[in-house]
Amino acid sequence: MVQPAPTLQLRSSAEIPQIGLGTWPMDDAEAAAAVEAAIGIGYRHFDTAENYGNERGVGEGIRRSGIARSEVFVTTKFNRKWHSRDGVREALRHSVERLGTEYVDLLLIHWPNPDQDRFVEAFVGMRELLDEGLIRAAGVSNFKPAHLQRLLAEDLVPDVNQVHLDPYRPRHDVREADAGSGIVTESWSPIGRGGDLLAEPVLTALADKYGKTPAQVVLRWHVANGFVTIPKSGNPERMRRNLDVFDFELDADEVAAVDALADPAAPLTDSDEFGH
């Protein structure tokens, strides 16, 4: 078993493990097997979503493992059809039914869907769920600074903003907006989505220096920046490596060298245009 990830304290006081297991695009059977194996490896944080169609599998994997529900941190997200004060309550009801749990640790608005312009109302409903103890933390996903500002103007502050972020896509504007309000930045697809990131000479050189893989160096860069991150894998050995990044540290110059990989041309999904 690998050393479990350290935790960060959210604004709500919930403790979130800094590395979790992403589960998109696993189906229920794949998610159940991956989550069960991951718990045995040392994972205590699992990320799912209504739109992934695998919440049942995530819940089944937790039950198969025999671990107490209180020992794991579960994140799920809801779609645009639930963007209303009462809708989020219904979304949560469906999610906990599929997960087979009484609560979720972190509930996220999956995409802002600004064309619909109801994410502020949705977050009001989420804060009510938080006050009632039905969720332990409330956050958002794929929110740009302008979307966050709409919430902040209503004194609504998410615990987490989960965004596509890796060394090619450092998302400095989002990170600065998050940090300015005490919001934890969480990165999805943290080690790139194809392309040549893991072949970059700076990463291969650091991997050789520390006896790690380039992917482990990238994940350590996320940790060094204070992010929560959720690499996805269904392969137990890769899952083990993804969690095994707490026995070395990158110094400030090495973090800066990875920072220098930023590519302004790296594609990003525009959350003003895309959503579900």
From TrEMBL:
Signal sequence segment: none
Residues under site feature: Lowers pKa of active site Tyr: 77
Alphabetized GO MF terms: oxidoreductase activity, acting on the CH-OH group of donors, NAD or NADP as acceptor
Domain NADP-dependent oxidoreductase: 19-262
Protein name as catalogued: Putative oxidoreductase/MSMEI_2347
Key words of the record: NADP, Oxidoreductase
InterPro entries the UniProt entry points to: AKR, Aldo/ket_reductase_CS, NAD(P)_OxRdtase_dom_sf, NADP_OxRdtase_dom
Residue numbers binding substrate: 110
